[in-house]
From TrEMBL:
<dbReference type="InterPro" id="IPR005754">
    <property type="entry name" value="Sortase"/>
</dbReference>
<feature type="compositionally biased region" description="Low complexity">
    <location>
        <begin position="38"/>
        <end position="62"/>
    </location>
</feature>
<keyword id="KW-0378">Hydrolase</keyword>
<feature type="signal peptide">
    <location>
        <begin position="1"/>
        <end position="28"/>
    </location>
</feature>
<dbReference type="GO" id="GO:0016787">
    <property type="term" value="F:hydrolase activity"/>
</dbReference>
<dbReference type="InterPro" id="IPR042001">
    <property type="entry name" value="Sortase_F"/>
</dbReference>
<keyword id="KW-0732">Signal</keyword>
<dbReference type="InterPro" id="IPR023365">
    <property type="entry name" value="Sortase_dom-sf"/>
</dbReference>
<protein>
    <recommendedName>
        <fullName>Sortase family protein</fullName>
    </recommendedName>
</protein>
<feature type="region of interest" description="Disordered">
    <location>
        <begin position="30"/>
        <end position="65"/>
    </location>
</feature>
<dbReference type="Pfam" id="PF04203">
    <property type="entry name" value="Sortase"/>
</dbReference>
Length: 213
């Protein structure tokens, strides 16, 4: 991740750093595979005597409703959200190249989720573009409200419950990219000291928010 123009300690907490080098390192270890992928067929394909050879119809799970907007009043943030996956070349979370846009992990839960972690990541800053959408993410704390708008026009509200900082190599991906458990919103960006030798920030800042009452 690139150093911020102001060299501010735009920790991931501030947002993912420059251009997808500005990718959430936390995601560099590859999030879980796409949701909804049918399991490989097992056993014999032969039909029982007198039974139809056609397999039973399987109803595919409904596609999740993608977030299209993220609003955080405390940060005066009203950002566009694009659906992203994993960069095939680097294996990193493919954060949008524009620092003003944040990325929703499209293989995970959407705005309409009834379980699991809705993951959105963004840049902290960029040497070329300046402060990113998540430049001040580190300033959020318990109780702060967040609103996520879905592609269907729905608005889901959350309340911040935790702010955590991890060295990128130690962030518990299985926790933040889980598709089970209670519904929660997970926001990730870069943070900690900037390492000029690697062009990356050392840490990731993670904000967890629960559905508002």
């Amino acid at each position: 991740m690139s150093r911020s123009r102001a060299a501010a300690w735009a920790a991931v907490a501030a947002g993912i750093v420059t251009m997808l080098a500005a990718t959430v390192t936390a995601c560099a270890e590859q999030p879980p595979p796409p949701a909804g992928t049918p399991p490989a067929a097992t056993g014999s394909a032969a039909a029982a005597p007198g039974a139809s050879a056609a397999p039973p119809a399987v109803t595919a799970p409904a596609a999740p409703v993608p977030p299209t907007g993220l609003k955080i009043d405390r940060l005066k943030l009203d950002a566009k959200v694009d659906a992203v996956g994993v960069d095939e070349k680097t294996g990193d979370f493919a954060v949008p190249p524009s620092v003003d846009v944040v990325g929703w992990y499209k293989w995970g839960p959407g705005v309409d989720a009834t379980a699991g972690s809705i993951v959105i990541a963004g840049h902290v800053d960029s040497a070329q573009q300046g402060q990113g959408a998540f430049f001040h993410l580190r300033d959020l704390g318990p109780g702060d409200p967040i609103a996520v708008t879905g592609a269907d026009g729905s608005v889901r509200r959350f309340t911040v419950s935790a702010r955590e900082v991890y060295p990128k190599a130690k962030i518990p991906l299985e926790k933040y990219f889980a598709r089970d458990g209670g519904v929660r919103l997970t926001l990730i960006t870069c943070g900690g000291p900037f390492d000029a030798s690697t062009g990356h920030y050392r840490d990731n800042v993670v904000i967890t928010a629960q559905p508002a009452a």
